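Sequence design from tokenized structure. All designs in this work follow the same two-part layout: the structure record, then the generated sequence. An example of the structure record is given first.
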């Protein structure tokens, strides 16, 4: 499995990571619920395959609890990233996602995450959104630095996107950044490259474009980009659309790890095979990016 240096953390991480949002359980959101034994098998298969980076959040229902329950004995085998600023409200039938930017909320997040994850230290604590002014003025960055001093976390990061991301990168205090990128939605490409140049570890989410045109949960807008850019032209023999999408992301040198979410063991195997096949030739990636860019320019002017 290909590894990359995760920026300032100086850790080697597998370029294929795991995003555990799909393990969020009942009464949250979305259409699928994964049962306990499947969650157990999935998390352990991820580690058995050699993946060493797992992302979660208090916002993902019982995902943290499951990681604690099923992986606590393997805690040294992977880097554990979770988030803070989360203030989810559980209703009878769904989970309402809310964010609160106070020191008290961040303290509570950390205490609860440590308990649910059954660990005494979180490798990477990421602000789940937030803007630079609030995080600074409320003393929240200082609080994370204090957690680090006390050995409760090892690194601090930000999980963000436009429009907040440029100013957050200017602060230059984070060890990592998590942002969305796929060849079907490449808006954050310049920020991704900038973050890597600044020395941050870059964690890409949405790196398989939510599964692409063959996904169980369909994303019509992304599928439209695939079709209009004619990306079927790039499928070599035996290559699935998901493989092409994932290998595009793995081809970007500024992507240190991509936390692909799957709850389907066959998809995990497919993604591992794609990662084994490695980056695409630079000319192929360039042509895909050019075609998608043309589609987007067409959309912007129409
Ligand atoms: N703001 C934030 O901080 C934020 C926001 C969103 C997500 N995240 C993190 O990023 C992770 C990934 O985000 P994401 O779920 O939006 O993006 P993603 O990883 O691009 O997409 C996940 C979807 O792709 C499908 N999939 C995976 N492999 C596939 C394959 N080989 N063939 C077909 N479908 C496949 C999965 O369905 P199957 O289960 O059917 O495989 C799942 O529905 C999350 O788990 C979470 O950790 C963070």
């Amino acid at each position: 499995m290909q590894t990359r240096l995760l920026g300032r953390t100086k850790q080697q991480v597998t370029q294929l990571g795991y995003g555990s949002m799909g393990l969020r359980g009942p009464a949250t959101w979305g259409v699928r619920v994964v049962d306990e034994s499947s969650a157990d098998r999935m998390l352990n298969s991820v580690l058995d395959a050699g993946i060493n980076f797992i992302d979660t959040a208090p916002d993902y229902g019982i995902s943290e609890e499951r990681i604690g329950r099923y992986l606590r004995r393997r805690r040294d085998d992977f880097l554990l990233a979770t988030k803070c600023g989360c203030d989810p409200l559980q209703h009878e039938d769904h989970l309402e996602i809310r964010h609160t930017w106070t020191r008290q909320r961040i303290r509570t997040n950390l205490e609860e995450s440590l308990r649910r994850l059954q660990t005494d230290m979180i490798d990477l604590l990421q602000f789940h959104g937030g803007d630079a002014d609030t995080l600074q003025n409320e003393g929240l960055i200082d609080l994370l630095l204090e957690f680090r001093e006390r050995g409760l976390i090892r690194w601090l990061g930000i999980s963000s996107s436009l429009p907040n991301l440029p100013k957050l990168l200017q602060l230059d205090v984070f060890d990592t950044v998590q942002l969305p990128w796929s060849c079907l939605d490449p808006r954050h490409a310049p920020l991704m490259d900038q973050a890597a140049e600044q020395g941050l570890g870059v964690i890409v989410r949405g790196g398989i474009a939510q599964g692409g045109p063959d996904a169980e949960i369909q994303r019509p807008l992304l599928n439209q980009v695939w079709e209009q850019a004619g990306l079927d032209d790039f499928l070599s023999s035996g290559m699935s659309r998901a493989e092409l999408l994932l290998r595009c992301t793995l081809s970007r040198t500024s992507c240190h790890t991509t936390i692909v979410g799957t709850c389907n063991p066959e998809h995990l195997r497919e993604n591992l095979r794609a990662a084994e096949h490695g980056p695409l030739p630079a000319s192929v990636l360039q042509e895909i990016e050019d075609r998608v860019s043309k589609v987007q320019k067409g959309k912007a002017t129409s």
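Residues 19-22, 55, 128, 159, 178, 205-211, 214-217, 242, 259-264, 267, 270-271 surround NAP (CB under 6 Å). We note this feature because it recurs in several other targets discussed in the main text.
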